[in-house]
Structure formats: structure tokens, C-alpha cells
Protein 1
Amino acid sequence: MKVVIAHNRYVSGRPSGENAVVAAEMDDLVAAGVTVLPFLRSSDEIPTLPFRERAALPVSPVYARRAQRELAALLQRERPDVVHLHNPYPLLSPWVVRTAQRHGVPVVHTLHNYRQTCVNGLHLRDGAACHDCVGSAAPWPAVRHGCYRGSRAQSMAMAAALATHRGTWQRLDRVIALTPAMAEYARSLGIDPARVSVKPNTVPDPGRHRQAGEGFLFAGRLSAEKGVEVLLDAWQRHRDGERGTLRVAGDGPLAGVVREHAARRADVEYLGPCSADEVAAAMRRSRVVVVPSTWAEVCPRVVIEAMANGRPVLGTNLGGVPWLIGADEPTPAGWVVDPTPAALADGLDRSPEVADDLGVAARTRYERQFAPPIATATLIRIYEDVARTGPTL
């Protein structure tokens, strides 16, 4: 089987979980015997583009001419079975769906965010949930607020893309939703439920271990929507050392706030930016991984990484977190609370009673639902299904 993986990589200066997911997924497919044809662009290219292409950037989210020309040549040359689209912005554009289908190739698209109805993909503005553009013929509130990179001009370009491609998503041959909550989002876009499949992200298996661990770990971008300030506020409600050590791994605009807390309290340790191996080591040194997101995060990899390392997750009851840890199931891999300092403080108090048992459940849940062989087999079945039925026209 031949599969084109189409993805516009995010800028390397801001580490992207989506970039890592796509790269790992390609490796897993190759290992499973699939012929992967990468069709990749990177936002790092933008400063070096020829003048003509840079001048066309405002329209590229709607129609990226070069990408369509290169994709058409690739499809004619390789005759793949499927095109799998991840992030189309800004150098590919959703028009790749129409280009592929015009050449008789079905398209699968993974919903990594809410970019179909929100120009920044988060449904988040000024640190709070925002759905002002949902249901509008065009997302003008996003332009008014400069929701895309703080720029009204760039927000206008993305708003035009959302308005133009509202019907493009309904043409998709299959949509991959990373959680059931995202499957519901896909259906809200008018996509036929029969064309929606749930397949979560995965992470490489680090293997089992017997390390007991102590304290808590936050690993992620140090920004408001990730909830690090809420966590630090909750931590302040306990005496120094009462709940062990709080380790914080990552970088971002709130790194200074984390450093200040680490300077004031002996039980807060700032690890700084960490590699994947360093994060895994920090997880094994800790007893619980905390995911205090204040927005409806789609499918945070850190939750799956925690379960892979046999660590339960204390998360907030938003987005995909409750489903990922099986919060409503008989043997969950953690527990969820409201995204407030008081609720999170209560969640921290609960950990000594349940952490060890839930750690075992976390590793078992990873092995049964999130290990790479399971995710890859599911993905290949999706490819085979759409290749058999052909493109939607």
C-alpha cells in the first residue's frame, strides 16, 4: 500500500506535539510495511521563499498554488492508494483534498485541533474558552481580535480559508478523530458519522519498570492554557514539602513564574526544557503526572506518555483528558477535577490513596489501547477501507 502523508510542519522554534506525532506515525507505518510518500512543507521555509511566493502568502491558506502543482505531479507519478492530510496551513491549504480527489485518490484527515471553526485552532482567547466564530458564515470576530498570531491581517487570511473550505471538510473520505469528543466535533461540521473513525495518538513503548517515584510532574509548554499557573496556585495551598516535590519540565512565556516559585519553595523544582528521554526519566522519578489544562485540549501526548511509563494522571475534566485516562471506567488511569486551584489542590490531596494502584492501571491501559502496534493496525484498516471504496466526489 502507498500512502501520501501531507503535513505542513509548525516552526521548529516552538516545539510541536503534532510534528512529533506525524513523524512517529510515518515511522510506524514504514515499519509495518506501508510505502510512505512524504509530502511535507515547513513554516520554517517562509522567510526564505522567493518574493513571488511570499507575496502570495495571504492567499495560500485558501489555495496554495505550488502545493497543488507538486501534489498533482506526485499523484500522477506514484499513483498512491490514499492521501493522509494532517496540518494544511499555511503552505499546503485544504485544497489538497480537492486535488487528490480530482486524481481519483481518497483523502483521510486527522483532526488535531479546532482549525475548521477557529482561526487559532484552540477555541481560546485571552485565556478563556471562546466560540464566537462558531456558526458564523465567516469568522469575523477572529479578525477583529487578531486571534491568529495577534495579527488582524493574518487572521483575515485564515478567516477567508475557513469560510472558503467550510464544504471541503464534508468531502473527506474519512476523518480521524483522536477522541470521542473530537468525533462529536467532526459531526458538528456536517461530516457523515459513517466517515468518522476514532484513533488516538500513540507514543513509543518505554517498557515496564519498578521505579516507585515521588511527588508530581508537570511536563509541557509553560503557557496559560496549559494550566501551569493554576497548578502553582493549587500547590501554594499546601505547606512546603507536604506533598513531596513538584517538578516542572518545559519552556514558554511563564518560565519566569515557575522560576520564582522554585526560588521561594524547596519543594518546587524547575527542570527547564527537556528532551523526550529526560521527560520520561522525570516521569519515573515522580509518582503522578499532572495535566492541568484550562482549555479543551484534544489529545495531549503527555497523558499517553504518563500511562506508558506507568504513571497515573491528575487532569482537568476538559477536552480529551477524561476519555484518555478512562475517568468513567471501573479501572481508570487517573482522576479529573475542575480547572480551578481549589479543585486541583483537592486532587493533589487524593494522590497518596490511589497513586500506586492507578499506576498499574495506567500501564495496562496504555498496552491495551495506546501502544504503537494497536494504533498502526487501526490506521492501516482505515486506509484499506477508503482505498477500497474510493474517493467521495
Note: The radius of gyration is 21 Å.
Protein 2
Amino acid sequence: MLIQFLIFFAGLFVLYFGAEWLVRGASSIAIKYGIRPLVVGLTVVALATSMPEFIVNLIAALGGKDDMALGTIVGSNIANIALILGISSLVLPLVVAPSTLKKEYPIMMGVMVLFYVVALDGVIGLLDGVILVLSLIAFLLFLVIDAKRHSQTVRLEDIEGAPEPGEEISVPRKLVLLGAGMLGLAIGARLMVSAASSIALDLGINQTVVGLTVLAIGTSLPELAASIMCVLRREADMSVGNVLGSNLMNVLFVVGLVSLFRPLEVDAASLRLHFPVMLGFGVLLFPLAWTSFRITRLEGGLLFGGFVGYLFYITAPYL
């Protein structure tokens, strides 16, 4: 058992650095070829930071662990809102731009509702995957068009994972970062899924619960680190944007692409409990952010407390 835990954390360590290297390589190459920083941040970097969830889910799905795969996505979306925004706002109240609540927030909620709808029949199949991927393409086109309409100056250092000012990265090093990142993601995800599956089997824990807790929190750590860094740099408004973008990519990019490889079966417990909890936290976010366009420490404590309560509820039968 101890060895499995060590393997899991080793996989998490490799996964984290794999994501970091992939983001740095992808963003620097995009900027090198003249892609605007704003578009890079909303597309290349957003997709790259969803790679941990994608690789973990692909490996889990191909191994027949559908419950674990979908649990990771639903749990990650819950953790992004309740855990990440909760902890971030406890560090410093989060400022929320009104435009974010008018544009990105409704899109995120629409995507999560779509996720629930395509899962209601118990299977997220090929057609559902095509719908999600087409929605992803439409969303990316919207970002590009919207960025052109609302041109604004975005500092390179504001893009999470981009090179620091004055830091020159040679083309060979960029390619090495990309390759090392993809390799790290593959190895780390394989170790995490294998270890988590063995631990669940030994302890008699449902694989959905493993996905909702250990894997979901583990794959959300890059977003948590990014949000905390934004808060400490007095750019708290970026934290909310990171969370909304991550939830969008988790559904459209991760679930969409994975379901193109093979159908994902959805268990009844997830439809009855976990999907509604995900949507519930999403709905709760709006009134919290709308009041004074900020999430206060008290409201952050409410989100974090709700997340802890949810974790306790689903893990209590195994304690």
C-alpha cells in the first residue's frame, strides 16, 4: 500500500512538471511566431493547462475505468470553483470584472449544463464527443474574434507559463520543453491512474470517488498554484478567468476528445449527486461574484467549507 502511495505522488510530481514544461514551450513558440499574447493566454496556454486532465482521462478510459475518468472531470470542475477560488479569496478578496460575468461565466455554465445533458442517457458517445469538440472550436473562434474586437495591451509576464521578461529561449530548447512536457504528462498520468486504481481496489473505494477526490485535486494543482500566484501578484481578477477557462476546457477539450476514442459510461450516482453538485457550485458563484464584483474572504470561506463538506459526505462511508 505504501508503495502505491509513493508511486501516486511520484506520478503527481512528474505530471506537474510535465504540464509546466508544456505550457512554457507552447506559449514561447506561439509568441515567437507573432501570435498575440491575449490569444496565446486564452487558447494555447488554456489548452496546455488542461493536458493533465486529458492524459489522465484518456489513460483511465482506455483502461476501462470510465467512472474514474468522468469522476476526475466532475471533481476537477468542483475543485476549480470551490477549492481554488475559495482558497484564493481567503488569501486576498478576488476582484471580478463585470465583463467576465457577462461573457465567460454564462458560457461556462452553458457548457457544464451541456455536459450534464449529454451524460443523462448514461453514455457520452461519439456523437456527444463531436458536439463537444465542435463547441470547443466555436468557443476558440469566439475568443479570437472577441480579442480582435476588444484589442488591449496584455503584458507577456501576465500569461501564466510564458517566459519571464528578458528570458530568451532558443528554438531547440522550446522543442525540448514541448517534448519533455508531453513525455512527463504521459508518464505521470500513467503512474497516477495505476496507483489510484490499486489503492481503490485494496481499500474497497469506489473508483468514481477516487476520481472525484484524489485525481481531481491532483490534476487541479497547477490551476491552484497559478491562482495563488495571481493573487500574490495583486492580479486577483485573473484567478476567476483561469477557473472559468479551465472548466470550459475540461468539458469541451478533455471529455470531447476522450469520447471520440471510446464511449464513456456514466454511473447513476454521478447523475444523481455529483453532476448537480458541480452545477450547484457554478450557480452559487454568480451571486457571490456579482455582489460588489468581488469574492470576499467570508464568501471564499463559504466555498471552501462547501467543498470540505462535499468531500466528507462522499468519503464518509470509507472512513
Note: The radius of gyration is 19 Å.
Protein 3
Amino acid sequence: MITVLVVEDSPTTREFLVHILTDAGIRVIGAVSDGEEAVRFVQRTRPDVVTMDIHMPVMDGIEATARIMETNPVPIVIVSSNWDPREVEMTFRAMEAGALAIVRRPQGIGHPDHAATAGELVLKVLLMSEVKVVRRWPRQQPTIPAIANTPHSVPAIVPESVKVVAIGASTGGPAVLQTILKGITLDFPAPFLIVQHMASGFLPGMVEWLQDTSRIPIKIAAHGETVLPGHAYVAPDGFHMGVANSGKIILANEAYEHGARPSVSYLFRSAAASYGRDAVGILLTGMGKDGAEGMKLLKERGAVTIAQNKETSVIYGMPATAVELDAALYILSPGQIVATLTRIAIRE
């Protein structure tokens, strides 16, 4: 049975979360009200998963997450109810400190969305319980390693030009996007189009968080705007995103694909149709198979395609499916992706 520690300063909300998890057959072995208590509890009794609040007395969720990941690492899921961009940005700082996922706080019993939102929390906890986490050295700053000399890491196919980079991600994606985007400079010759599966309401805060460490402008995409090189555009909540060969963003309120809207596959198909061999497709960590077939089409059109490797993926679902379909030319770590993008797009 999975064991969970609930960290939440509100007694009512704490009891509510314990009820939801217990009702789903998950064993809650502790419920504490601040980050300092959480750090001590994890040190004494290592749970399989911690659900973490952000705003708490004594020690907030960001610092508690960092301390836990530096001393006794366990999978941490941030549970948030505040969708103000500035507040959500703090939630993503907890991910930067080592938390694996974010989920919205479930709606109360009697609310029409209670069952769905409670199910999201339970599913996220179950998924994260299977992730093997590693210790983070105190306030370690991630570095971008050189490309290893392996069959999947050294680009053998270099396009004549790169006109668009399309990226898809799900669970675990924000931290990888941060690594990639902060390694890109403003003189990069192509725009980045990004689909990140995320609970509704968290996207503006994620964009602000990414912008804090990036040297290129990042924004939520608008229908009809012309994309610019050295800029990143993130698909908005509830809309598929594509791109015309004129370089204009296309947003579509069409049917869900692979249970998602926006869909990575939709973006990849659009990039393949508009840019073909001048596109780069990158599929990052995430559950399911969204994006794999679209990446296969990109590869067939002559585009460079990259899947994140298993070792660095929180959930090796989407990239694994692409690899199984032989859709990925390269299988790389996040740091290697940055180095590869630089190598194939900025050549002497």
C-alpha cells in the first residue's frame, strides 16, 4: 500500500485531503501543518509520496521541498488552489527545488467537479509513487553536459535551415523546459512552439517562472500572431496550437486528441505540414502517447526529431512511445538537447 504524508496548514483542507486519499485506498501515515514538521517527519518515517502546500507558517513549501530533496528525497506533489500568476509562479519554484508535479486542490464535496478533481489528485499521487527520485546536493545549480559520443547523441543529419522548433511535454515537463529554454540565446534562428499538458489555470504562472531564467522572450500564444525567431510561444489552455507556413499561429477549438487539448500530436502534424525538413520536433517526459505519431510524421518529412531519454524522464511514456515507433532520430538528456539544438541550428 502506498504511504503518503499530507502537508497543509489549513486544518479543514488537511482533513479533506486525508479523506480523499484514504477513501481511494491510499494510506496516509501523517498530516502536518508546516514545512519544518514535514522535513522532520520525512526524516523519521519516509513516506512514498508527500503532498505539499506552498504558503505555510514556520517554513514554506518551497524551502521544505528543497530540504527534503537534499536530505531524504521522496516524490513530492504540490497541491495548489491559488491560480494568480504570481502565486502559481511560486509553485513552480517548488518544482525547481525538486517537486515532481503540480495538481489543483480538489473541489469540495457537492461541487460538480469534485469527483474529477479528487481523481486527478489520487492519480497524480499513484503515478508519482512509482518515480525513483535522487538526492539533490544543497542548492545545486544544474549544468548542461557536453554531448556524449553515443549513437543517438551526435547529429548525423543536419538540416539546411531550422525554421521552427516544436516541443511537447507532460508530467515533469516544466523543469525540462526550463533547462532547455535557459540554454537558448536570443540569436537562435527559429521560434519555439510549446505544448505543455497542465491543469487549467497554472499556465500563466509557469510562463512567468520560465521567463525568469530564460534569455529569450516567452509568452502564451495568440491566434494569428506571427512567430519570431528566438522567441517561445506556449499553447494556451483549451486550444490546440499549430503554425501556418506563413509563420502565423493557429489556435483551434477542435476535439481532444489522446485526452488532451492542446495536443502535442496536433502541433507536430502542423509543423510537419508547414515546414517539413526545416522543423525540429522534441518530445519530453510525460504519461501516455501524445506526440509520438506526430513525431513519426515529422521524421518521415525529413525533420530532426528528438526524444528525451529514460534516465532523465519523470515518466517515460510519451518519449518511450516515440522510440518504439522509431520516430526519434536522437534520444537525449535535457542538457544534450540544448547542445544539439545549438549545433544543428547555429553553424559556422
Note: Residues 3-128 form a domain with the Rossmann fold fold (CATH 3.40.50.2300).
Protein 4
Amino acid sequence: MRETAAPREARVENPRDSGLDVVRVVAILLVVCIHCNSSYYFSPKTGVYGGDWVVASLLASSGRICVPLFFMLSGCLLLKPGLNPLQFYRKRLSRIFVPLLFWSFVYIVVRKTLEANQISALSACRLFYNGEIYYHLWFLYALIGLYLVIPFLSPLAEAGRDLHLLGFAGLTFILGSLLPCGDRLLTEVGGFPFRLGIYSQVF
């Protein structure tokens, strides 16, 4: 009798990277840890510099890497050569911009009712534009900025562009670290606020 061959198992075309999943889980746990221990900074039982305060400060300081981890994960997963900017924006910005509009409206209503703030339509638009409606919405603004620049940075992910990527990383370090240090140093030496006019933290 003729034996029938066993059917082949379907191959997974896009397997998940378990390493990235581990990094994502660690980042999530660090975010939870930071928010849970914040109440121990000024514990009424132990005082300002009690044991709880020391432990909470250590946990908060070591957990601050969580947000950079999320951004690096986004860059690792999205920064690919040959991205179509229109398709990229249509797919991802709508997922961020619509929730930002919704929750901004919710918090405007909350501030007008619970906090008795007199917020006009014009001031609400100004708060939305400046990202000042509610402090923890900053992450959505940061994601929008990240998504806006990724299509323009995608050529750096092509083969043979290591030198360009290194140069961009160096420029980011200068604008994000050295310039703020220079601003602070000049402010301390000169005795008056000094700004170079570059919002390096946004960059």
C-alpha cells in the first residue's frame, strides 16, 4: 500500500524576537516600580531621609531607564530601510493622535469641573498645542515626534551606513547632553539665564 506523506507544518513567516519581548517586560515592570514607590519619598513615619526614602530613591533612579528602553524598542522595530512616509504616517499617527485628542478633551473637562479652572476654548487649544493639558500625556507627544522623524532616519538603517548612524548618534549626544550642560555652566558663571535657543531635550 502507498503511504501518504504527513502534512508539513505551517512555517511562521514573522517569528517574534523573544529578546525584545524580555526588554519590553522589564521596561513595563520598571514603570510600575517607579510609580509604586513614589509615595515613599516623603514617608511620614520615617522622615525625609529614612530607610524607605533611600530604598525608594534607589529604585526610582535605577528604573529611569524604562522610558529610553521603550524608545529604543520603537526604533529597533520601526527603523527599517525603504519606509514609505505616507503609509507609515497613515498607519501609526492615527493610532496616537486620536487617543491624544480624546484624552485631552477628557482632562480639559475634568479640570473645568473638579479643579474649577476657567479654561476657554482658545486657552484649551493653546494648552493642547504646548502639551500642557495634563503632565502624563507627554509620552503621546513624544511618540508623535518619534514617528514624524523615523521615515527620514530610515536610510540610516541601510547597509553600509554605519558611519552616518554613528555621526547622527554623536550629534544627538551633543544636542541632548553637552549643550544643556553648557547652558547650565554659563548660567552659573554669568549669573543670569542663558539659552542657546535649541530645545535639545525635544530633539
Note: DSSP finds seven helices and no strands in the chain.
